[in-house]
GDT1 family protein
Amino acid sequence: MEAFLVSTGIVALAEMGDKTQLLSLVLAARFRKPWPIVLGILVATLVNHALAGAVGAWVTQWLGPQALRWVLGVSFIAMAGWMLIPDKLDEDDTAKVPRFGVFGTTLVAFFLAEMGDKTQVATVVLAARFDAWAAVVAGTTLGMMLANAPVVWFGERITRRVPIRAVHVVGALVFAVLGVLALVS
């Protein structure tokens, strides 16, 4: 349960102001069909995070406990620094023409936007830390949905009220604490 809850909280925090959250807003404004967008986000996140979690689980088997402790500690601390760098959405991140429909466009755009993103890297690190692939993937996916689904449904009204900088600082502190704990335990 700890792996699930920590993964959910960390990804929900990491996702605030993230490029994929901005992509959710753009898709919602462009297509105005929330259900296919949310379903596309869910499927893309499940696939992406399942792969990232598998990498994290593999890392735990490949590295010894001492090396793993250092890799995790440094990774969490690096994630803390990365949290403080705001994301921007590139103009090319969404398809010009919805060739695959709203669901397909969202699925492809989200999957590609998540490649190498903070939340994907966090999923790898969390899966390595907790050695609980299913709980981590379920938690990171729920965290993504908690951060992105409301943006699709409520759009700009939410983004104007959320103090993104404060959320990034809290997220960075959580990653920093996890990093220090990994290094000293």
Notes: The chain is about 80% helix and 0% strand.
